[in-house]
Structures are given as C-alpha cells and as structure tokens.
Structure to design on (490 residues):
C-alpha cells in the first residue's frame, strides 16, 4: 500500500434520474441525518465533518457533484497515521443512507429546499480568512515527501531534517541510540539548571533540537509533521518559524524554572507551542465553523492525552505546559495580522512585540530561579578537593617517622575531614531537593567515619599496638558501604 498522509478514501457514486440540484439537496439531507456538521457549500458540492466517537475521529468528507455523479472523499483531520477503515466506512454509510432517503423523496420538496440552500452558498462568517474558509492541508504522498520543502510547507521539513541530522551525528559520535546518558545529553546542549544558569543560556535553544533516544525523536517528529502540515500554510514561513522558536524558548524556561535536577531535551516544548497556536486559531473565526469544531476535538484529545501521559514521570511536562501556554497567547496575538494579511506593519509589529515579551519574561523567570543547585555543585567540587587532601595520609612515603605520620593524621587528615563536614552542613542551608539533603547526610556520616578511623589509627601508632586492627577494618567496611550508596545515587 502506498504511503499517504493524511489517510483518506475516495469513491464515485452514480445517481440516475435526478438533477444536480436535487442530488445536492439529498446529499445535504443525508449528511444531516447522519449527524455530521456541514461546512462550506457551493452549487456543485460541500464539505462535512463527522463527529468524534469510537467509530469516527472527526473526518472531513467532501462532496463534488458532477451531473449524475458524486465524487466523495473522506479524509482524516486528526493525528492518526492509519484510519482503520473509518474513511471507507463513512462513504459506505453515506451511500446507504442516501439510497434510503432517495426512495422516499418528494421532488417538489427537493426543489423548494434547494432554493433555501442557495442562500448558504459560499457564506462566510465575519472575521473569517478571505482566501480559504477550509483548513489548508499539505498532502503527503510518499515517505520522502515528508522531507520535501515546498510552498506552504518549508519550515517544517527544514526543522525535521535538522533534528534528524543532529541525532544521526550524535549517534555517530558514540551517543546511545536508545537511551543516551545524562552526561552525553548535557555535552550536546541539553537544558540542565546548573549548566544553563552557569552561563549556558544557549541551552534554552539547543535543547529543542536534541532528543533522548530514537523513540523520543520519532514521536516528536511525527507530531511536528502533523501540526506543520495544518498550521504552516496558514501562518507562513516567518510566523511559523518565529512561533516555533519563541514557544521552544518558553518551554525551556518553564522546564528550568520548575525542575531542579531534570535534564531536559527534545522539540516537544516547541511542538506543544504550535499546538497551542492552532488551538487559539480554532477558537476564533479564522477557520470555517464546522471545520474548526472537528479539528478542535482532535487537537484537544491529542494535547490532553500527552499531558496526562506526562504525569507518569520521566517526561518534562513543565516544558509541554510552558510551550502550550505561550503558543496559545502567540496564536491570539497573530489574529489581527492574519485577518489583515496585506497589512505588513501589523505582522512585523506583532513579531517584534512577541519576541520582546518572550525574552523579557524569560529573563525575569531565569533571574528569579534559584541557583542553589549551582552553588551545591561548586561546593561539591570544593569537597572533592578537601577530600583529596585529607586522603593524602595514605600516600605518605615509606620510612616516614611515627611522629610525622601522627602529625599528618591530626593536622591534615582529621582537619580536612572536619572542613568537609562544615562545608556539607553549609550546603544544607541551601534550597535543595530532598535527595540532595539525603546525600549530604550520607556525606557527613562518611566524613565522621573517616575521622573515627583516623583517630583509631592515631591511637594504634601511639601505642604501637595491633589490637585495634579489627576495629580499623570495621571502619573501612562501613566507609566502603557508604561510598557504594553514594555512587548508586549519582
């Protein structure tokens, strides 16, 4: 079967002994009986939208009447890759219902109703975009066409290719294809509060273009292609790219503000932002009423499902919500320029204003985000240095006198372990996650055991006795146990 997106089914339905006008009336009555929402209508056809249910995911059904034939096309407007026969079923239901109504029709009544329908031809609502009342969709007719830039679909494939290329380069340079480790992600530009607040502001953008494994990449790129096909034709290249970047930054800032130790990466913040832009548009008259009702249900289902799925843990819902919220606001801000496409000033002013607001809001949140994690990281670097000096006791050269060894244990070893304890207790005053406070408690216990161990070694040397050897070994065992616990928590 050829690859095509969105999924669709087309069929011709021949009707004898009825004029085009009467066929149109019967088709409208059939759709009304099926409970579908009728969209735009002309003298030779109309569009309708099925209602969201278990048997239908809000498909668009288009009817083109040509003499004694109706060309019917049912096409998905939701995010499904496979329609599971829904489009074919829609056409079959229409034909069956049409035939049933046709057998009972009153020709005079059909003529009277056609007169009423004429008043609805090409009727647009106030504020509706003049150039196209129906949702503009880019057709995908082959896998490679996903990556092919063309009119109305330029920024989306560019972002898609960029994300895929970066992921391929990461894999070629040794990053795990399924589950990259945190160190690799941070190295490639992931968003991580200690690293970002320590001057790595560029991570707010780079994190939107790297992914945590191939599954993460595929899911995000599928969502990007879907929303890009629907939204980019409306917004145009400049608006679409601006909205994508601004919502991406907003999602990264939200993630940074909310998460203390989470390593965040992926395009989902920006993608949720684009869904937010489209949600805003679907609550206005920019899109024909019946079309927006159908699409809105599908979009809300997609967004709601993914937000609920993000509650399971391991998913950066803060970035999703930050992108979605900013996207909704940006979508409403685009409304004046979208209803006046010839007014370039409106478009330029809107983009400049949105950029200024996003950057200002980002600066505010980042400057009010606690950098105690960064202070903690710096303290741990100092702890490692003090620990190294305290452990120099074990590096004393052979032949060192007992007097010098005792002085080293007391004046350097025990002294630096006490400095380590003081440093850890100082970091406990910071605003840290509970897991780091728990880690600090283990570090203090570790240092105390070291001090007790040094003290007993000092006593054994002073008394020139081996009777403390078992106790020294017990301390060493306890120290090794704590070190293993600390390593497991890293």
């Amino acid at each position: 079967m050829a690859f095509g997106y969105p999924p669709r089914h087309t069929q011709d339905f021949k009707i004898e002994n009825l004029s085009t006008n009467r066929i149109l009336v019967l088709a409208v009555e059939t759709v009304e009986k099926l409970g579908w929402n009728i969209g735009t209508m002309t003298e030779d056809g109309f569009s309708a939208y099925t209602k969201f249910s278990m048997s239908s995911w809000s498909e668009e059904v288009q009817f083109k009447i040509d003499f004694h034939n109706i060309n019917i096309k049912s096409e998905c407007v939701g995010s499904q890759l496979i329609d599971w026969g829904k489009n074919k079923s829609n056409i079959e239901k229409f034909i069956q219902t049409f035939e049933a109504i046709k057998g009972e029709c009153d020709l005079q009544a059909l003529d009277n109703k056609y007169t009423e329908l004429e008043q609805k031809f090409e009727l647009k609502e106030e504020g509706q975009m003049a150039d196209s009342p129906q949702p503009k969709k880019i057709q995908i007719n082959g896998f490679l066409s996903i990556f092919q830039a063309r009119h109305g679909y330029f920024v989306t494939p560019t972002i898609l290719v960029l994300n895929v290329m970066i992921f391929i380069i990461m894999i070629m340079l040794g990053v795990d294809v399924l589950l990259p480790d945190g160190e690799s992600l941070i190295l490639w530009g992931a968003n991580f509060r200690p690293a970002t607040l320590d001057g790595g502001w560029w991570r707010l953008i780079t994190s939107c273009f790297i992914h945590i494994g191939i599954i993460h990449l595929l899911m995000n790129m599928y969502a990007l292609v879907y929303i890009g096909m629907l939204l980019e034709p409306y917004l145009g290249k400049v608006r679409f790219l601006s909205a994508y970047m601004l919502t991406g930054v907003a999602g990264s800032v939200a993630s940074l503000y909310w998460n203390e130790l989470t390593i965040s990466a992926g395009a989902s913040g920006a993608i949720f932002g684009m869904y937010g832009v489209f949600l805003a548009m679907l609550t206005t008259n920019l899109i024909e009423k019946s079309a927006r009702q159908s699409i809105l249900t599908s979009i809300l289902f997609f967004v709601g499902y993914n937000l609920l799925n993000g509650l399971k843990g391991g998913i950066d819902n803060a970035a999703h919500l930050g992108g979605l919220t900013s996207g909704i606001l940006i979508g409403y801000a685009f409304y004046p320029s979208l209803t006046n496409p010839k007014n370039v000033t409106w478009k330029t002013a809107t983009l400049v204003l949105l950029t200024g607001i996003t950057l200002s809001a980002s600066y505010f949140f980042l400057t009010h985000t606690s950098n105690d994690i960064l202070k903690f990281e710096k303290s741990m670097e100092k702890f490692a240095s003090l620990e190294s000096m305290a452990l120099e006791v074990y590096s004393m050269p052979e032949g060192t006198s007992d007097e010098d060894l005792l002085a080293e244990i007391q004046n350097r070893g025990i002294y630096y372990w006490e400095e380590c304890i003081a440093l850890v207790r100082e970091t406990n005053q910071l605003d840290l996650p509970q897991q780091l406070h728990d880690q600090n408690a283990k570090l203090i216990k570790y240092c105390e055991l070291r001090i007790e161990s040094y003290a007993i070694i000092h006593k054994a040397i002073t008394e020139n006795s081996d009777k403390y050897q078992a106790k020294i070994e017990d301390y060493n065992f306890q120290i090794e146990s704590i070190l293993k616990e600390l390593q497991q928590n890293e």
Observations:
- The radius of gyration is 33 Å.
- The beta strands are 8-14, 37-42, 45-49, 59-66, 69-76.
- Residues 123-135 have pLDDT under 50 and may be disordered.
- The CA atoms of residues 248 and 270 lie 4 Å apart.
